[in-house]
Design brief:
With about 180 residues, this protein is mainly alpha-helical. It has 9 helices and no strands. The protein has one domain.
Amino acid sequence: MRFCSKCLVQNIGHKSICGRISPLLSFCLLRLKTMKVKQLKKVELASLNIPGFSLVLADVYKSMLINGLSKNTFDNYCRKLADICLRFNKLPVSISEDEMKDYLKEMIQGARDVSRSEFKHTIYSLRYYLKMIGEDINIKLPQIKNEKRLPVVLSKDECRSLFELTKNIKHRAILMFI
């Protein structure tokens, strides 16, 4: 089952959805229309080019709705699952552990600088999907640890210069009480 590309692109209401789509998929399609254009294109491409991705999308939506997860979580997970499917040209279930490790390595070391949050969304979307389908997670996904940094503390001289540079008495008093 695939989405009609005309229905995905045009924003003309529920009647524009072709009759081949089940009610759950049509609801997901309406939900996707509210997403940003960049996200819509990735998910649209994956649903058109990867057989079975539209069913994966419907299953993820149903599971997230039941578990009470937010709309933004659904948007991010769908976009990341679409990225993975488009990269390998197959569903995440069919991806081997070596392929996934290479993909994650490319994300971190690739020419495109990937933010920490984008990497986390990729890992979490894969975990959620594999757990949702009941697949034994044979792909060892890395644990994401928080960076520990010490807070920046001003020295006494830096504090004095900050107080001296403040011209307004009210602002100087506020800074001195902090």
